[in-house]
Amino acid sequence: MWRRMSYAVAYRTGRTPWDTGVTPPEVVELIEGADPLAPGHALDLGCGTGTNVRYLAEHGWHVTGVEADGRAFEAAQRLLRPVTGAHVAHGDVTRLDDLPLDGPFDLALDIGCFHSVAPPRRDAYARGVADRTVPGATLFVFAFARRPGLAPVGVTAREMRDRFAPWFDPVGRIAGSQPPGAAWYRLRRVT
Hints:
There is one protein chain. With about 190 residues, the chain is an alpha/beta fold. The protein has helices spanning about 1-15, 25-30, 50-60, 70-80, 120-130, 155-165; strands at about 40-45, 60-65, 85-90, 105-110, 135-145, 170-175, 185-190. It has a 7-stranded mixed β-sheet, with helices on both faces. Strand 1, helix 3 (about 50-60) and strand 2 form a beta-alpha-beta unit.
């Protein structure tokens, strides 16, 4: 509960350093690079104000974003109103069954959401993503490294592998620069 409250305060005060309005270069490489993914259906988990939902839609994807924070959800709705093939659902990424999602999805994108999901809810997140993706789908997650503390935030490479097994196999990891230990994890849906 404290996590949602902290995001609500951040969006209310405009202190959202993660919501830059710029699609990360790693996502651009995935979509436009030397070996780009073919457009299909995409799910953006924890989409914030919709920046990456819009980017994907502008590159031929049919995209659904999921956002729990009310202010961010409303901002995403405004941003996406004129964009064809993009919409956002207001809800919890660990309760995807409760949401009107137009799947199945070929791509699931998560830029900084999974690492802040409480560990007891992470299995529900993984199961929900697996249930909504097709074999061969890509799961692309940016996550902080695990940090000690009362409320654990972050992940390890082992957790990414184990938490998403048996549905996904890890196929790549790109080291991030900020914060130290952060990384992009690429997984492929196998079953």
